[in-house]
Amino acid sequence: MNHNTPLSPRPLHHLSTGAGRRVLTHAQLRAHGVSAAKASEQCRPGGPWLHLLPGVVLLHPGPPTSEERLHAVLLYAARERTAGVPSVPVQPGTESPPPSPYGEAMITGLAALTLHGFPSAPPLPSLEAFDVLVPRLRRLRSTGCARIVRTPDLPVPEQVTGLPVAPVPRALADAVAGLQDAGTVRRLLTEAVRGGFCDPAAVVRELTAAKLLNRPHVVDAVDSLLAEGRTLAESRLYRMVRDHGLPDPCWNVDLRLPGGPRLGGVDAYWPEHAVAVELDTRAPRPGRRPDDEAEWSEYARRRDHLERLGITVVHITPRKLRDAAEQQAAVVRTALIASADRDPSAYVVVLPR
Fold first, then answer.
1. Residue 100: pLDDT above 80?
2. Which residues form the domain of 256?
3. Is the pLDDT of residue 130 over 80?
4. Which of 7, 188, 201, 260 could connect to 283 by a Cys-Cys bridge, CB 3.0–4.6 Å?
5. Is residue 296 in some structural domain?
6. To the nearest 10°, the Cα dihedral for 120, 106, 136, 139?
7. Is residue 264 within 8 Å of residue 306, measured between CB atoms?
8. What is the pLDDT of residue 6?
9. How large is the angle between the packed helices 200-209 and 168-177, nearest 10 degrees?
10. CA 241-247-251 angle, 5° bins
11. CA–CA gap between residue 327 and residue 283 (Å, rounded)
12. Collapsing DSSP states into helix, strand and coil, what is residue 179?
């Protein structure tokens, strides 16, 4: 028996029930008994199929929908692997992940932001090409509606409408890399934080890794992003106190020793309990590392000083407020209750900040 003999052709009408099934690679077509010659014949001008990308066929004459184009660029980026199961490392003691027809490829850039639900991201039909993220060593070229983006460190994709999509911080960085309009960049970064898609620090890390913070319009947008992140974190802190029944604190105050130096500002302070909450909205910035270190040293010095005066300082990050507000409220409540068992704190003056 000749194992190289192609399978008998099978009807393909059953493959046209969904966008993913209406786009196949040559390898997948061969698995259905369709030879390369037959596929080329079907894709001739005026024929029933269309060559959408190299090695990728649309099983109708077109034009393709946005969903079909998304499937096509992913299949193009992974077409050498579509005939078999992709190699995905599995941790001992865990179940094997379900095989992906797209290998390691994932949608990124503006198309990914649209899929994630960014209000100002362009609609998919308006994009001439979709960015697809692949490992750095893949030998692929951008062509047609597929724009290849390479990276040495692939993120873990998120599944959006059944497609692998880069996480928001990575998708933002890839989108910003191709944008020159300062207003668009600022709007996308602001939406990322305001919409609760991610934290400012995660965005700054990706922009730093992509070496984009040497562009003035990106730096300006990041400054707006950090201000937006600070405002949003404060709003969530107010909501945490209200929703979880904590006593009202003094908001945004400076602490001073009577007749002495300023101890520093805190975001919330309960004078009767000597408990303070401080939000950490810092984000590391390239070129500002000495400032970052100085800021952290000042924060640590201020916190130690307050603790020595008998004031408990609860440190909360924006991510904890977003993802675990109830847990953070419990931490603050525990600190308030525990104050009854502590030695009295030093008397401090509370002033508006």
1. no
2. 247-352
3. yes
4. 201
5. yes
6. -110
7. yes
8. 37
9. 50
10. 65
11. 23
12. coil
CA distance 135 to 164: 14
Residue type, 10: R
Instruction: Look at residue 334 and tell me if it is in a domain.
Output: yes
| Dihedral pair phi/psi, residue 352, rounded to 5° | -60, 145
At 243, is the secondary structure helix, strand, or coil?
helix
Beta strands in the chain (DSSP E): 23-25, 50-53, 56-58, 106-108, 130-135, 146-151, 158-160, 163-165, 250-256, 262-270, 275-279, 312-316, 349-352
Place of tokens 């990728």: 56
Provide the 10 A C-beta neighbour count for residue 138: 14
Nearest-5° angle of CA 27, CA 127, CA 151? Answer: 60
Task: Find the angle CA(205)-CA(332)-CA(238) to the nearest 5 degrees.
Answer: 70
Distance CA 176, CA 218 (A): 8
* Residue type at position 79: R
**Cis geometry, peptide bond prior to residue 63 (ω within 30 degrees of 0):** yes
Q: Residue 71: which of 138, 12, 124 has the closest Cα?
A: 124
| Tens-digit pLDDT profile for residues 259-275 | 888 888 899 999 999 99
Spatial separation of the C-alpha atoms in residues 325 and 294, rounded to whole Å: 29
Phi, psi angle pair for 181, to nearest 5°: -80, 120
Tokens of 107: 């949608």
Per the document, the length of the chain is 353
Q: 53-67, 71-85, 295-309: which range is least confident on average?
A: 71-85
154, 77, 74: which is closest to 111 by C-alpha?
Answer: 74
pLDDT tens digits, residue range 232-288? 889 999 999 999 999 999 999 999 999 888 888 899 999 999 999 998 876 555 544
State the pTM of this model: 0.72
User: What is the structure's pLDDT at 20?
Assistant: 55
Identify whether 242 is part of a domain. no
- Site of tokens 């490829």: 105
CA distance 216 to 269: 38
In angstroms, the CA 221 to CA 218 distance is: 5
DSSP letters for 186-233: HHHHHHHHHTTS--HHHHHHHHHHTT-TTSHHHHHHHHHHHHHHHHHH
